[in-house]
Structures are given as C-alpha cells and as structure tokens.
Automatic annotation (TrEMBL):
Record keywords: Flavoprotein, FMN, NADP, Nucleotide-binding, Oxidoreductase, RNA-binding, tRNA processing, tRNA-binding
InterPro entries with a match to the protein in the record: Aldolase_TIM, DUS-like_FMN-bd, DUS_fam, DusB-like, tRNA-dHydroUridine_Synthase_C, tRNA_hU_synthase_CS
Protein name (database record): tRNA-dihydrouridine synthase
Residues reported to bind FMN: P38, M39, A40, Q97, K169, H199, A255, R256
Catalyzed reactions: a 5,6-dihydrouridine in tRNA + NAD(+) = a uridine in tRNA + NADH + H(+); a 5,6-dihydrouridine in tRNA + NADP(+) = a uridine in tRNA + NADPH + H(+)
Protein origin, superkingdom: Bacteria
Keyword Transcription tagged: no
Species of the source: Roseimaritima multifibrata
Keyword tRNA-binding: yes
C-alpha cells in the first residue's frame, strides 16, 4: 500500500508539512523515505558502506546487474557478478537492480536473488538510456515503447520473487515527443509491482536539462495503491525537502549528487525531521573519507584494479572544490596505491569554490 498521510501531515495550499511518513514497499519499511539510486560503475559495496557510515538512506541499491550475464556465469560455474559483491552479508534493507528483456531470464535471476542472497527488494531497470543497453540489448528505457513486454517481465518477476517486493524504475518516456509515463505507471501497478520510481527526464535527454518534477507529480493520480518515488536533480537537503513539500511523491531517490558526498543522505534526513542540517565535513575529513573508500575498494579488487576503479570516485570527491581540475589531471594517471595516496596528499583540494 502507498504511504498514508499521518496526523502530523496535511496539505496546506498545496504544500505538505514535514516530516513525511516512512515509505512502505510491500512489507519493507523505508525510513527515512530517501533512497540511494542504483548507478552502474559506482554504487558497489564500498560506496554503499560509505553511505551507511554517515546514515540517512532508508534503502540502498546495488549497481544494475545484467540478468542474462548472471545466468551465463551460473551455468558455467563462474563467480557471480562483481556487482553482487557484499550483497549477501550487508545490513538490510537492500535492493538489487536487474535488467534484460526476457521475462523468463529475469524471473530466474530474481528468484536466485531472493532465495540465495535474501535481498529486500528486486528492482527492474526500465530507465537506463545508454546505447549499449537500449539499442544493442533492447532493454532499459528501450522497453518503454513496449508496455506489454514490461507487463510480462514484471508479472513473472513478481510471481518468482513473492513475497519479496518487486519495483520498477522508469523515465518519463523514450523522447520528449513520446512521453508515456502515465500509461506505463498503470502497467507497472497492474503487473503487480510494489513501487514505481520515476526519473524526471526522457531517455533522449540522458542527463541534460532539468528533471521535470511536475510531470513526476502528475503520475501519482495514475497509481491506485503503490508509492511513487521521484528522482532527478536532488543535490541538496533543501531540494529533498522541496520535493516532498511541492510534489505528490511518497519517497525520493538521490543519484549522481551523492557520489562524492555520501553524507548528503544524512543531511537530507535531518532536514526532513526539521533538525538543523549538518555542515559538510571539513575538507580534511572529506579527504579522509575518500581514502577510507579507497581502502575498501583495494581490499576487494586488489592494488592495481582497485586503484584504477577509484580514480573516477576521486574525481567525484573533488568536484566543486578549488583546484579540482588540477587534481583530476594527476589522479587520472595513478596506477598503484602509493601513487594514488601521494597524489591525494599533494593535490587533493582543501578549499571549496568561492
């Protein structure tokens, strides 16, 4: 059931007072109703651990997992995908996002995730706009043009995963000339999904322009019983508060803005409670946070691969700081832990932009 407005809430001239109630996805309680988005190449176990240490996210998610690749690995007795690293042992609730266009394959993987990994939520990616997923694999946001197939994927996954809830993440449509999110929302609910997340851009937009939260909010009237989660451009605690105050959503999902700021969830959660918003960590603390993140990555992937993987995170941590470009130039060349740590010591920006 969708979150119900409690006694502390009301609508006053279209503005909802805070705090919002916890979000319910099936039997999973998401409190606070702030979700960490699944992001390919970024939201691995090390990143999730950094977010967890600061707190504030009611539900975290893995990177998206290719269902067909998972099945191939399983059939060939290979190690399961790196993107499932840490999932079996992490605190709950935790969502795993999967993608493909074959209902039977998706159902098979969903059942494995529930039976073997005991995940809290299985999320379906119907929003990825990347060409390799859309045009080459006819998956992700490509499926927004095929509601019948979406319905069958969701239906079979819901049946295979029960009673674990299945959710879906979509965009507004494939293009600005073909915005069909209202129709898709009804399809998602009718197929049995327990929640819907909507990114407020079309697939054609990628990440250009601004997310359309008015469009996201309009979708709520097309849902009868499941919660609506809004996603797009939430890069501050104040914007999270505004999303709940101005728009008809039951939860919010923070994506790219958190990659170099894992403390953003804690700030947003405090703001929703009406508490003072914690200050950003000091520059030295941010640097130390990044180095702890680096240690976790190297521990899992080894010195060489871990260093290569961490370079993109390091750029995120430096974003918005004076001298970030200079730092990125150097850290992009790091190939060993010693080089990485030396570059961080010498070049990591310790001043914010004016």
């Amino acid at each position: 059931m969708a979150s119900q407005v409690n006694e502390k809430q009301h609508l006053d001239d279209g503005v909802r007072t805070l705090p919002p109630p916890p979000l319910k996805i099936g039997d999973v309680v998401v409190d606070p109703p702030i979700l960490q988005a699944p992001m390919a190449g970024f939201t691995n176990a090390a990143f999730r651990q950094m977010v967890r240490e600061y707190g504030g996210s009611g539900l975290q998610a893995t990177e998206m997992v290719n269902a067909r690749g998972f099945v191939w690995m399983d059939e060939h007795e290979a190690e399961h995908p790196d993107r499932l690293w840490g999932v079996a042992d992490e605190p709950r609730p935790l969502a795993v996002q999967i993608w493909d266009n074959q209902p039977e394959v998706m159902a098979k993987v969903g059942k494995r995730l529930v039976d073997e990994y005991r995940v809290s939520v299985v999320d379906i990616n119907f929003g990825c706009p990347v060409r390799q997923v859309t045009e080459k694999a006819h998956s992700g946001s490509y499926l927004l043009r095929d509601p019948d197939r979406m319905h069958e994927i969701i239906r079979q996954l819901v049946e295979a995963c029960a009673p674990t809830p299945v959710t879906a993440k979509i965009r507004l449509g494939c293009s600005r000339d073909n915005i069909n999110c209202n129709e898709i929302a009804s399809v998602v609910e009718q197929a049995g999904a327990a929640a819907l997340t909507v990114h407020g851009r079309t697939a054609q937009d990628f990440f250009k322009g601004s997310a359309d939260w008015e469009r996201i909010s309009e979708i709520k009237s097309h849902l009868k019983n499941i919660p609506l989660i809004g996603n797009g451009d939430l890069d501050s605690a104040e914007k999270v508060v505004t999303a709940f105050q101005k728009y008809n959503v039951d939860g919010v999902m923070i994506a790219r803005a958190c990659l170099g700021r894992p403390w953003l969830f804690a700030q947003a959660a405090a703001a929703l409670r009406g508490d003072p918003i914690p200050e950003d960590p000091s520059m030295e603390e941010q640097r130390d946070c990044m180095l702890r993140h680096f240690d976790l990555v190297v521990e899992r992937f080894g010195a060489e691969k871990g260093t290569l993987l961490m370079r993109k995170y390091a750029c995120c941590y430096a974003q918005g700081k004076r001298g970030a470009r200079h730092f990125r130039t150097h850290v992009a060349k790091a190939s060993t832990p010693a080089e990485f740590q030396s570059i961080v010591t010498e070049f990591f920006p310790l001043e914010s932009q004016p």
